[in-house]
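Sequence, please.
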């Protein structure tokens, strides 16, 4: 049976197989070429060639770009022309038309991308690269020629950035300038040095106010809102910046905040600070009222032994709080409450509700702060303390160190040892008033 099948099979001739392959290849290339050739009236030679039957040894004439899509890029054009009888090239005008259409499609794609229509932009980008694979390089070259001024007006469809009807700008609307003269920088510096820079406020009514009134307004704002207001006022205009640094502003602030116990005026101490009221405000010791001073004390206490082999040790922590008021009053409170809860309830008007709180007066003399405190449920007993105003790494006037602490009852005095007392550190509280006086 196998022998009969072998006899029925026709022998394969290599020449016939090669002839079939060549005819099939010519038909495929002819169909692809007809799709790529632009619609134009065919010439007499082309019509005659199309009507004649295809020869067995030659391939019909097709454009070179159609052949390049079906052959390997490594083959040269000469090798292609060697195996083809006649291969007419595409006209140069057709290439320029495809290039212009690619640029138009690319620019339209950038506008759609700016408007957020990404699907349309993607389709136009693909179309532009199909029409002109080097469309980006062409756009860069055209914009560079327009910037340098070496090219005349061309028929390019690239919309310049100065077009009043075009509100969409892309990366290519701002070309890079490679040819820059180093002398241009010096010329620009000389031109800008001759200009007069003026600062105009947004509200022109402020320019009509005299400087004396503006200085009083600045001083009042500092006394009511704290020294942080100076930063905001300085940003208003150049004139306000100059007024915020004037001596009369800081003299008013210093005279309201610093109330010396002696009858001598504050100007007597001015030479100690270089005759500058601002330096006097920064360096002269003062009491801060926009927060509270906190002192934490820890000690160990031996617990009750449950068994002979177990003896617990407890860590005890408690806090001392000091809050000063601009009217000369001070609140002293010793409690185990954490600062988060304590600062909310510390109020001089409600000091009677705080267990262990003492209310009194304070007096600042130099860097010595004297406290005179009284206990409501213990009449005739006064607690007095002397603290030193200092500074730490966190800022100025934010540390109080113990100098002396004692108790007075009638005619007796009992000193309290300072070894168990820790210094106070200032903590600003945003909910407290920021006024200085």
């Amino acid at each position: 049976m196998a022998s009969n099948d072998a006899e029925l099979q026709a022998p394969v001739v290599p020449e016939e197989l090669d002839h079939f392959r060549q005819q099939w290849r010519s038909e495929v290339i002819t169909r692809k070429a007809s799709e790529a050739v632009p619609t134009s009236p065919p010439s007499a030679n082309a019509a005659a060639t199309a009507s004649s039957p295809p020869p067995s040894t030659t391939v019909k004439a097709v454009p070179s770009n159609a052949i390049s899509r079906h052959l390997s890029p490594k083959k040269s054009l000469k090798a292609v022309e060697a195996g083809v009888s006649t291969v007419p090239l595409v006209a140069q005008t057709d290439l320029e038309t495809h290039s212009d259409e690619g640029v138009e499609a690319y620019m339209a794609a950038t506008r759609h991308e700016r408007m957020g229509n990404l699907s349309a932009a993607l389709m136009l980008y693909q179309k532009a690269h199909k029409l002109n694979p080097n469309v980006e390089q062409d756009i860069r070259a055209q914009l560079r020629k327009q910037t340098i001024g070496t090219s005349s007006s061309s028929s390019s469809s690239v919309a310049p950035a100065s077009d009043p009807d075009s509100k969409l700008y892309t990366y290519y609307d701002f070309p890079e300038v490679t040819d820059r003269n180093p002398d241009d920088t010096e010329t620009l510096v000389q031109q800008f040095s001759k200009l007069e820079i003026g600062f105009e406020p947004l509200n022109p009514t402020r320019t009509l106010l005299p400087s004396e009134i503006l200085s009083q307004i600045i001083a009042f704002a500092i006394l009511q809102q704290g020294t942080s207001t100076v930063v905001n006022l300085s940003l208003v205009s150049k004139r306000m910046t100059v007024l915020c640094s004037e001596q009369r502003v800081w003299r008013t602030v210093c005279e309201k905040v610093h109330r010396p116990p002696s009858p001598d005026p504050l100007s007597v101490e001015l030479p100690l600070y270089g005759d500058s009221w601002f330096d006097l405000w920064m360096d002269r010791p003062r009491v801060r009222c926009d927060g509270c001073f906190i002192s934490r004390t820890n000690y160990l206490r031996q617990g009750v032994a449950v068994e002979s082999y177990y003896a617990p040790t407890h860590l005890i922590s408690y806090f001392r709080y000091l809050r000063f008021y601009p009217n000369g009053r001070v609140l002293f409170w010793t409690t185990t409450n954490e600062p988060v809860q304590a600062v909310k309830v510390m109020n001089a008007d409600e000091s009677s509700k705080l267990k262990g709180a003492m209310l009194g007066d304070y007096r600042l003399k130099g860097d010595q702060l004297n406290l005179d405190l009284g206990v409501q449920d213990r009449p005739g007993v006064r607690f007095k303390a002397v603290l030193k105003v200092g500074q730490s790494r966190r800022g100025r006037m934010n540390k109080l160190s113990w100098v002396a602490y004692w108790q007075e009852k009638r005619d007796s005095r009992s000193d309290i040892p300072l070894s168990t007392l820790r210094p106070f550190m200032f903590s600003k509280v945003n909910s407290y008033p920021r006024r200085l006086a």
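Residues 22 and 56 are 8 Å apart (CA to CA).
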